[in-house]
Design brief:
single chain; five-stranded parallel sheet; Rossmann fold; alpha/beta; 10 helices; 2 domains; 259 residues
Length: 259
């Protein structure tokens, strides 16, 4: 029986089929399909014109309760569930004013509590962007940092230029090695776990110390327990010596949350 592999692609562009960023994602997925005929690759692509996500209200309730008060009013809850069910997440955005698009920024803002609870531990990610002629690195570096703080291992980050640059979307000669590299890294990660970076491990240890203090305070004053500390306890983070240990556990649990 062929192995199944689920990929969710989130594209921060409202241009639909005309999106250069969507084209980059489609080329990456097509190359992967060709390179992995033995794998059933299930793909879902969501572009910004297909989702309805309100801007963050900056109320802070998601940090306290673990839930966004707007989840029942827009699509963020559905997108979260899709991300948690995926084996690989592709986060892609056009470059607007030197960074990600407004739609991608709103999506990230609404996921901000995940920067503390790290539910993407054990999942892989790829970061892509397209730029007219500059600032691609700024956008992909930002998305990479966000995904790594959420727990995902970013396999690679790539930018393609539209008009001027070493890698042009319309130039098959410059695109071919990029697409093959993305495919190679994703294929490798299907069989062997890719471990978190040293920076991720440092972040995990810092957060662990912080939430251990919260846990001790909550044990003394139960009325003041916050959801984030409880999620850490439920997921077994306090019992793990490293993020790498959690990656191994979730891999054995088929990528699912520990509880």
């Amino acid at each position: 029986m062929k192995k199944k592999y689920k990929i969710l692609t989130l594209v921060g562009s409202r241009k639909g089929p005309a999106s250069n960023t969507l084209q980059f994602c489609m080329l990456s997925l097509e190359t992967l399909q060709i390179q992995c005929p033995e794998i059933i690759i299930q793909t879902e692509i969501l572009t910004a014109d297909q989702w309805r996500i309100a801007a963050c209200k900056s109320c802070g309730i998601c940090f306290q309760s673990g839930r966004c008060i707007q989840e029942q009013q827009d699509d963020i809850g559905k997108i979260k569930e899709k991300m948690l069910c995926a084996d690989l997440i592709i986060m892609a955005s056009p470059v607007y004013a030197g960074t990600v698009s407004g739609d991608m920024k709103i999506l990230i803002d609404r996921l901000s509590s995940w920067l503390h609870t790290m539910p993407l531990i054990g999942k892989n990610a790829v970061v892509l962007s397209t730029a007219d002629s500059n600032h691609g690195e700024g956008a992909i570096s930002y998305m990479r940092q966000i995904l790594e703080y959420m727990g995902a291992v970013v396999l690679c980050q790539k930018n393609a230029f539209i008009h001027y640059g070493p890698i042009r979307l319309g130039d098959s000669n410059s695109m071919k090695p990029v697409l093959e590299e993305i495919s190679k890294l994703v294929k490798y990660s299907m069989d062997k776990p890719v471990m978190p970076t040293a920076g991720q491990e440092d972040y995990f240890k810092m957060q662990s110390r912080l939430y251990e203090r919260y846990r001790q305070f909550g044990q003394k004053y139960p009325a003041f327990r916050v959801a984030e500390e409880q999620i850490w306890e439920q997921q077994g983070y306090f019992d793990a010596a490293s993020m790498a240990e959690l990656v191994e556990k979730r891999r054995k649990n088929h990528g699912k949350m520990l509880v």
